[in-house]
Amino acid sequence: xxxxxxxxxxxxxxxxxxxxxxxxxxxxxxxxxxxxxxxxxxxxxxxxxxxxxxxxxxxxxxxxxxxxxxxxxxxxxxxxxxxxxxxxxxxxxxxxxxxxxxxxxxxxxxxxxxxxxxxxxxxxxxxxx
Length: 129
Hints:
Elements: H1 5-18, E1 23-26, H2 31-42, E2 46-52, E3 59-64, E4 71-73, E5 79-80, H3 85-92, E6 100-105, E7 108-111, H4 112-117, E8 122-128
Antiparallel strand pairs: 1-3, 2-3, 4-8, 5-8, 6-7, 6-8
C-alpha cells in the first residue's frame, strides 16, 4: 500500500523520463496530485494528462515531453514563511530562477514565485527542474 500518492507519481514520472517513454499511467490519484500536474503542465515540464476511469478506481495518463531533469517531493513537508523561500531555492533548485518549488498555501497550491508575490507562506510539496 502506498502512503504518499504524490511521491509515487513523481517517482514514476521521473523513471519514465529517464527511460525515454512518451507516456506514463499513474494510479492512485488525488486532488493534490492533479493540481501539481496542472502546474507542471502550465510551466512546460509535462504534456497534457487525462483521467481515465476503470472499474477499480481512476488513473491518470500523462504525456511526457522529455523536459524534466529532476523532480520529487519534499519530505518532510517543511513549513515556510514568506521570507524563507530563498533558503529552499538554494537547497532544492540548481540555480536562481531555474525550476520551481510547489507550495501548499492558505490561498491554494502554487509555485514559490507566486507565493512570494502574494506574500504568503505554506508547506513545501515538491520541486521540479
